[in-house]
Amino acid sequence: MEHDKKQLSPVILVTGARGQIGTELVAALRNVYGREQVIATDLHDAMATPDLEGPYHQLNVLDKDELENLIATYGVTQIYHLAATLSAKGEEAPLKAWHLNMQSLLNILEAAKDHKLDKVFWPSSIAVFGPSTARKISPQNALLDPQTVYGISKEAGEQWCAYYREHYGVDVRSLRYPGLISYSAPAGGGTTDYAVAIFHEALQNGSYECYLNPDTALPMMYMDDAVRATLQLMNAPVEALKERGAYNIGALSFTPAQLAAELKNHLPDFTISYNTDKRQSIANSWPAGVEDAEARRDWNWRPEYDLVTMTADMLGHLTPVYKNNSNTAAVS
Ligand SMILES: NC(=O)c1ccc[n+]([C@@H]2O[C@H](COP(=O)([O-])OP(=O)(O)OC[C@H]3O[C@@H](n4cnc5c(N)ncnc54)[C@H](O)[C@@H]3O)[C@@H](O)[C@H]2O)c1
Q1: Which residues line the pocket of ligand 1, CB cutoff 6 A?
Q2: What is the whole-number distance in angstroms between the Cα of residue 321 and the centre of ligand 1?
Q3: What pLDDT does 47 receive?
Q4: What is the mean pLDDT of residues 117-128?
Q5: pLDDT tens, 168-197?
Q6: Helical (H) or strand (E) element with 36
Q7: Within its chain, how far is the Cα of 119 from the centroid?
Q8: CA of 216 relative to ligand 1 center, distance in Å
Q9: Residue 227 to residues 25, 102, 141, 277: CA-CA distances in angstroms?
Q10: Among 185, 209, 122, 191, which Cα is nearest to 157's?
Q11: Which of 216, 179, 214, 184 is nearest to 200 (CA)?
Q12: Which of 109, 220, 251, 296 has minimal CB crowding within 10 Å?
């Protein structure tokens, strides 16, 4: 009876809720389960988050006592653990990134075990792949040989999730997100951030200097698809999920030159230049696309956005923002 009640109205805690994914995932979860059912948390204090409608708490995920306190106070039944340091930022302070990414995950898994939570979501990444993966398209069961501390933390995280699932029965589910493209929040220090920044620069300045070579193809996904995939995986019957680690999910694969060409179809004067930095070597170690037959088979994954529809949707949302900004600047 109690279990049925939990299933009907989960109480969901989201960590890293102010980030690129959290901003949209919290809104989507509130849409499905109700505003008061989703507790958003992040490092920022509550005063700095007036736009988050619904419960919000400042939480450092490394603070296990405060995490436990929130779980008990709200009767949390599910956690979406998003707080992390991403690939490019992680290389600037590897041990700090390792500590945050690993210790926070262990805090969440321990809490899930001790509080008998119903489900946990934790995202992995295409950063688990490395040079031994087929450069073109990486299968679900590729050998994982990550080249960044971020990728190592995601590979180890996948193993820890499997460990808690097998030894303690924690229902923890995971996706290997590709580079995510969205308009609501800035990208958070990953190697694929250019695919978000290019839209803002194109609308603001008409040009963009890209830190990757024009022909660097990488797996990408529009945020709407990523959020839908996350909810779909979390709602799939547990018996259907056959993968021990995180699921590959594919959607788009394009190069900076291809994205620039698509942008030029909307903004004919847009120009792009190239000046590579350290992120190029990270991108070189990743595959251009992923094979996602297992996700399609087990929980019916299908992406909806391609390069053309993603670009049009991004511009549809961002163009009015920059138009309004320039109008405001003209008035003031
Ligand atoms: N965005 C992508 O393209 C992408 C791709 C693959 C995987 N992922 C994974 O998805 C998750 C979310 O990514 P994102 O892009 O939203 O990241 P982001 O950098 O935009 O957001 C991360 C959030 O975590 C918060 N945070 C950092 N340290 C914290 C701490 N100690 N306690 C609490 N909060 C803390 C930050 O304030 C930030 O709001 C991460 O696990 C990331 O590895 C993201």
Answers
A1: 15-16, 18-22, 42-43, 59-62, 82-84, 86, 100, 123, 125, 177, 179-180, 187-190, 192
A2: 24
A3: 73
A4: 97
A5: 999 999 999 999 999 998 888 999 999 999
A6: none
A7: 18
A8: 24
A9: 6, 23, 24, 30
A10: 122
A11: 184
A12: 296
* Partners of residue 80 on adjacent β-strands: 14, 121
150 is catalytic: yes
Q: Give me the residues paired with residue 12 across strands.
A: 38, 78
28-72 pLDDT per residue, tens: 999 999 999 999 999 988 777 666 689 999 999 999 999 999 999
Of all protein residues, the one whose alpha carbon is nearest to atom 30 of ligand 1 is 60
What is the predicted pLDDT for the residue at 200?
97
Q: How far apart are CA 99 and CA 85, in angstroms?
A: 10
Q: 56, 80, 150, 208: which one is catalytic?
A: 150
Give the pLDDT confidence score for residue 328 in this predicted structure.
58
Distance 188 CA to ligand 1 centre (A): 7
Which of 70, 21, 18 minimizes the C-alpha distance to 44?
Answer: 18
Q: Ligand 1, from 86, 223, 290: best to mutate by most atoms within 8 Å of Cβ?
A: 86
Q: What pLDDT, in 10s, does the model give residues 290-326?
A: 999 999 999 999 999 999 999 999 999 999 999 877 7
Report the relative pairing of strands 252-254 and 218-222 from DSSP bridges: antiparallel
Q: How far apart are CA 124 and CA 109, in angstroms?
A: 15
Q: Which residues contact 71 (CB under 8 A, 6 or more apart)?
A: 13, 79, 111, 115, 117
Residue carrying the six token digits 């009767």: 75
Which atom of ligand 1 is closest in space to residue 101's alpha carbon? 41
Crossing angle (nearest 10°) for helices 194-205 and 256-266: 30
